[in-house]
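in:
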C-alpha cells in the first residue's frame, strides 16, 4: 500500500523520500564512488564507460553526462550525493546551486546573503496563504 504524500504538490520541489531513494539507489552509489580519486580519474577519462559500469537507467546516465543536476534529482538523486558530480568537475556547491536555479554563481550568492528565496509560490498547491 502506497503512503499518502501530502508534500508531492509543492511546485518545483522534489522531496527525497523512500521512493526517490529506491529509484536513485545506483545513481547515488555512482555519485558516492566519486569520493575516491581513482574513480574520479576513471570517470573523467571516459565518462560513458564508467557510467556503464553502474546499473542506472539510460535517462539517469544522460542526466549525468549533461550535468543536469535537476534531472538527476528528479530521477532519484540526492543533492548531497549529486554534488559529487560537480565537485569532480571542480565546481563549488554554490556554483552548482546557481546553475540549478538558472542564476549565475554571483546572483545565487547575493540571493542567499539577502535571506534566501521568497517562499511565494513554494506552498502546497491547495494551501492558503
Amino acid at each position: 500500500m502506497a503512503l499518502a504524500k501530502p508534500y508531492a504538490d509543492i511546485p518545483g520541489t522534489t522531496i527525497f523520500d523512500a521512493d526517490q531513494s529506491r529509484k536513485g539507489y545506483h545513481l547515488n552509489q555512482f555519485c558516492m564512488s566519486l569520493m575516491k580519486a581513482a574513480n574520479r580519474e576513471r570517470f573523467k577519462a571516459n565518462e560513458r564507460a564508467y557510467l556503464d559500469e553502474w546499473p542506472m537507467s539510460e535517462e539517469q546516465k544522460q542526466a549525468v553526462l549533461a550535468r543536469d543536476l535537476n534531472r538527476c534529482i528528479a530521477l532519484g538523486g540526492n543533492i548531497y550525493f549529486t554534488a559529487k558530480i560537480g565537485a569532480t568537475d571542480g565546481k563549488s556547491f554554490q556554483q552548482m546551486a546557481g546553475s540549478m536555479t538558472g542564476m549565475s554563481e554571483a546572483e545565487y550568492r547575493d540571493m542567499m546573503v539577502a535571506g534566501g528565496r521568497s517562499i511565494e509560490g513554494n506552498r502546497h498547491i491547495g494551501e492558503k496563504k
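note: The mean pLDDT is 88.
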